Amino acid sequence: QKEVEQNSGPLSVPEGAIASLNCTYSDRGSQSFFWYRQYSGKSPELIMFIYSNGDKEDGRFTAQLNKASQYVSLLIRDSQPSDSATYLCAGGGRGNFNKFYFGSGTKLNVKP
Amino acid sequence: SQTIHQWPATLVQPVGSPLSLECTVEGTSNPNLYWYRQAAGRGLQLLFYSVGIGQISSEVPQNLSASRPQDRQFILSSKKLLLSDSGFYLCAWSVLPFGGNTIYFGEGSWLTVV
Q1: pLDDT (tens digit, 9 = 90+) per residue, A5-37?
Q2: The pairing of beta strand A106-111 with beta strand A85-94
Q3: Is A65 an 8 Å CB contact of chain B?
Q4: Which of B2, A83, B19 is CA-nearest to residue B10?
């Protein structure tokens, strides 16, 4: 069973729209959840992390966590062509063993 | 500020040859260190993680090994590469401060086994 699952996409949205990316996880002990953006051929870069149930906003990005449903999402408002990338969801940070498990990523295409 | 260096950036190796990828972290002490592999079009697979010098945990059986000879140095090795070892290898680090932790990646190493 995969620890973290994502829809591989691609998810296509027009420029200026809201992109919604979703992720589910299986380990109820996971404490921390992360969203990374990965451009083709590059290493992942951290966008946001979230630890508590609810929403967390940072600029155009909002992360949502629902621990009861084991569900994490990322909303990107006013999507730009430069947001086109693969978005990786990760969970982990359980106790002192900081093992982070990543989903396979969702490819986002923002069309001008 | 903390930085992570990983090298070499790219390499092409014949099947059966050895491998050594190196990673160093600057600007922090006692980090947790990781090696991930990303096959073409796939997600990140955790290979090894380390919480301290000489402490290595393996996630999956394979012909790779890892070592941590110094606090901020992490090495990924193989004695004999397989075609299936091709991929994008990422070193990463994290620190557990009060209240949580995050993981940061190096620039990655592209390995092609031919």
Answers
A1: 998 889 999 999 999 999 999 888 788 899 999
A2: antiparallel
A3: no
A4: B19
In this prediction, residue A2 has a pLDDT band, given cuts at 50, 70 and 90, of: low
Distance of CA A12 to the CA centre of its chain: 16
A43, A49, A98: residue with CB nearest B105: A43
What type of residue is A88? L
Locate tokens 């691609």: which residue?
A10
| Percent above pLDDT 90 for chain A | 71
The predicted model gives B40-62 an average pLDDT of 86
B6-30: string of b/e by CB count within 10 Å (b at 16+)? beeeebebeeeeebebebbbeebee
Contact residues, chain B, for A97 at CB < 8 Å: 49, 51, 57
Token code pair at residue A26: 């299986």
